[in-house]
Amino acid sequence: MEKGSYKSASEIYLALAQDGVAAYDEGAYDSDGGLGDFVSGCVEEFKECMKMIPDRSYKDKLLEKLENLRKTSAGFSYTYNKNKIIGLPGHNFS
User: Are 45 and 32 in contact (CB under 8 A)?
Assistant: First the structure.
């Protein structure tokens, strides 16, 4: 994948995760866990793309959106290591 493609892909995965969480928070039926699995997969792919982006300020902006999503979700949670995604040692956020 080309370097610019990682930025585009990270934005797409984040948007999909945001929409999935919004659906979950609005009461989407998810008894089989499919929606949760989908959102978790989007977050994982987002994290992988972010590792390939060298622009620290860009990564910080997108990670702020991910953190806001985590804080505002009524029922969906996930763990990630912000510093690992941006290339620094650090702690998990959950």
Answer: no
Beta bridge partners of 80: 93
Candidates 33, 39, 34, 37; CA nearest to 19 is 39
Q: Kindly report the backbone phi and psi dihedral angles of residue 32, in degrees, each rounded to the nearest multiple of 5, phi listed first.
A: -90, -5
What DSSP state is assigned to residue 33? Answer: S
Number of neighbouring beta carbons within 10 Å of residue 4: 9
pLDDT at 4: 66
Query: pTM of whole model > 0.85?
Result: no
* 25 in Cβ contact with 73 (< 8 Å): yes
